[in-house]
Amino acid sequence: MCLTLGVDFGAYWATTLLKVMVVLGLIPAGAIILGYVFLLKMMSHMQSRLGPMEAGPHGSLQLVADGLKFIQKEDIFPERSDRFVFAAAPIVVLLSTFLLYIVIPAGPRLIIEDLDTGIFFALAVSSLSVLGILMAGWASANKYSLIGALRAAGQLIAYELPLVLAVVGVVIQAGTMSLQGIVMAQADGEIFGVGIIGNPFLLTQFIGFALFLVAAQAELTQAPFDMPVAESELVAGYMTEYTGFRFLFFFMGEFGTAFAFSAIGATLFLGGWYVPGVHGTLADVLGPLVLGAKIMLVAFFIFWFRFSYPRLREDQLQAFAWKFLIPLSLLNIAVTGVLKVAF
Amino acid sequence: MLEVLRRELGGAILGSEDTGSDLCVRVHCTMWRRVAEICREKLDMDYFCFLSGIDWMVNPAMSGEKVWEPEGGGVVMEGDEAEAAPATGLQTGVAGGDTRFQVFARLYSTTEKRGLTLKADLDEAQPRVDSWVGVYRGADWHERETWEMYGFDFQGHPGLRHMYLPGEFEGHPLRKDFPLLSREVKPWPGLVDVEPMPGEESGADDGVATAGAEA
Amino acid sequence: MTVTTDWQKSAYIAGQAADARVNVELETEGMTLNLGPQHPATHGTLRIVVRLDGEQVVWAEPICGYMHRGYEKLCEVRTYPQVTTLINRIDWLGHFANEVPFILAAERLMGIEAPPRAQWIRTLFFEMARIANVSLFLGDMGIQLGAITPVFYAFRDREYVLNLMEAATGGRFHPNFDRLGGLKDDLPRGWVDECHGVMARVVSFCQEMEDLLMGNRIFQTRTRGIGVIPAAVGLEYGLSGANIRASGVDWDLRRDEDSPLAWKHCDWKVWTHPDGDSYARYWVRLQETRESARIITQLLDGLPSGSIQAKVPRIIKVPPGEAWCHTENPLGEMGYYVVSQGGRGPFRVKIRSASFNNISIVPWLLRGVYVPDVITILASLYFILGDIDR
Known about the structure:
The complex is a heterotrimer of chains A (about 350), B (about 220) and C (about 400). By secondary structure, chain A is mainly alpha-helical. Chain A has 12 helices and no strands. Chain A has helices spanning about 10-45, 60-70, 85-100, 120-125, 130-140, 145-175, 180-190, 205-220, 230-235, 245-270, 280-305, 315-340. Chain B is α/β, with parallel strands linked by helices. Chain B has helices at about 1-10, 30-40, 65-70, 80-85, 140-150, 180-185; strands at about 15-20, 25, 45-55, 100-110, 115-120, 130, 155. The longest helix of chain B has 12 residues, at about 140-150. In chain C, a hairpin with a 2-residue loop joins β6 and β7. Chain C has 16 helices and 8 strands. In chain C, α5 (about 115-145) packs antiparallel against α15 (about 370-380). Chain C has helices at about 5-15, 70-75, 80-85, 95-110, 115-145, 150-170, 190-215, 215-225, 230-235, 240-245, 255, 280-300, 355-360, 360-365, 370-380, 385-390, and strands spanning about 30-35, 45-55, 55-65, 180, 180-185, 320-330, 330-340, 350.
């Protein structure tokens, strides 16, 4: 992060270390915020109950307490598990989450690394979690975990395509794959000549937005696509045998990725950190807050679907992806391409 | 209904009784499967209710009276003398019975809304009877349970194995000579208090508070 | 006389705390999976061993007995009023409904009849037990399928019914209220009005479930056509209650059996569905819950006054004989075959519980279905472990 404070942090390694620290801090922070607001409080209120109220005011420190609890638990390996793979699996999942945060812009200059292939990199890196899940399921030496992992592999691979294709529409319209560039395209754009609020791609890419939400839901293995973690059948699917801090890694990975996907969705479709009329250093300060608000909006939808719908069976899930979502997304791309050239 | 059964089985029907609300027919044990087939085909009994067994041996250690006076000796009440002596002979119930063991089952017709109870006497030393699995598929589990609890051998059953009890269990629990093991281990904590009410004859006890008291 | 060896006694004591081992032959092809005995999907300790080929079930067998309490043997050493305490716990969600057939059978043997007010209140509590039981099912089916919200609404609205039960009988879950000859006590003052309010809530809850769950596309995709039970096969296995009415069989013991309880004084309808799949079973139970609320409202309006208990001797001795009595319990048809040889306790009680037969169809039904559908089918058949294992 090169802040315009007039001070050059100098050595490359110092900057990199700072960036790593920021992301490592963001992951649990994002996970806790999302987890608390949506999982603990919104879900509880929608289910006519209160949720945790004891730890901290209105239970806000509950997840912090949970985190501490998980860390101090005994580290258990199932007897016949493959130890190295068992230990490595949550790290792989967390790795994919970590890499996702690198390309998300929070302000005109607040981005860890502004890659030219920003969104492409993000999508590619998010598929790493499939590896981690498969490793977890196999190494657990538990039939339930194995079933969960295999379901996850099939599902996540199937829903990669609608995710990518939904994003392609945005990329066509923006003309660049860099996330910062996409935000600028929305900021500088105009709607029929009126440039007050820019041109959030939500207006033109509404199909893409819907597709992105559905595919992101599936990528995060949230209901209605949570076959891999079908609680009433497989106990906890691929996560069954994990306890203590390894489970914490999975949990943080899940919610951290939800945070990251919400951020990407907000950036691609809602305009990211851009707020009309705010430029320069003020945007650097307000940007994260604006982005945060937009993240909350997208995450609201994701979690709302999660606890409203029953889950789809695996083959119905696949049929939904291959027979409905992918043709729709291809249609979206075709129409976007035509309109882009025409206008 | 009884006429149809009489016509089909003739002398195999050993006894029948109509208790007003229910018809109970006792057949010879060799006709056990045949009577099921007749009920299915002729009497339209499409619903299989249950199948189980009765052990008619009286065991004074295993009766409601034991609740009141577990040490024996007993509280004598009016009218009790006739029943106080444990019956040496077997008293079998409705529709009679000759042996200690009886298998009984119930069928029902959902179209005609009437049911039928069937019984058969089984040999005491080797209780054996045909299985109903070919006629009513639901009898499978019931026969397993009856075998487990009483020791009746159902011939033609696809696989008689334990339903409720663990694999190594010895004995047949619902037989009257199989003791209630939890009572052997410790006395029942719900023993009634035999304390005479003030002013009433000795021996009238009212320990169980919920016994038929006026509202 | 078989002698109990010391080994048997110690094994019995040890066995109470140990898990049962069942010999399951492991074959190399396919994967043998144990669903249970500790599993979120089974309502209690049921163990289903399935052999899978990928995600399809090749062979399934339920293994019950993890909750076997030996009720039939225990009933033989109890007096008639004490048996009531015991049998409350067979189907623990539909509490009062377990006591009624036994009491009716014993009354039939004794030749006494409870006064009309008692019969009407018995019917009332019976229907409330049905609502308490089935409303849990309505939410529970959702959670087995992944919808985690409806079950909370079900618990919330069920609390009102349980509070009413507690106000009248003193027990939320095990009222233990039925007595030979009537009931233990009369209804408290103001209970009838409050019950009207609760019934209105129950009807609105049913509407909520209908909108939230039954109308949901995903729910319908998961349940339509899954676990179809043809009526003839179901009857052969002894399926009863909503399970068989969902296969189109028009049979309801409340209407078809001449019982002294007060259903014939009410205007109500028997719901059937022709499909026989999991959706049909859910649909039938939902309609029945609404119907129960209607019945209760009619019963409340027409409650006769009078005494609550007929005159019975202090120490109850039932004359010798045999009686069978069955009723339409929330889970299905429950019946008691009471054999009495004169005496303070029954000689033999055969408890015919509904879930035992409902689950016996599982090996036949589960062949060729997918693992998620196993859960759907089990959820839709709706069994209670206490009912299976007695």
